[in-house]
Amino acid sequence: MITKLSSSKALSMHRLVQLVVLHKLPMSGRVETFGLAVRILYFGFPNTLQGGGAHQGHGWAFWEKSSEVLPHVSLLMRLSEKYKIKAPNTDF
Fold this sequence. Notes:
Elements: E1 2-5, E2 10-13, H1 15-24, H2 27-44, H3 60-83
């Protein structure tokens, strides 16, 4: 149910496993795990303000990276609303 993707050196967990783990965690564990996921995505999202250049934020690399991260951000937003979870510390 958990696989390592050799092409991107990433781990993939089946969605059913994710839901079971989420439901088995106490609320404090959910908040901590949610905060960790928010932090990981925050640092994985491309920062166009530091890149500079004439096409700042509009380059191919930005859009390619964004397209990988945005589905995860959308999922976290839906989970936040559904389970009333907020990240404990967003002072990055």
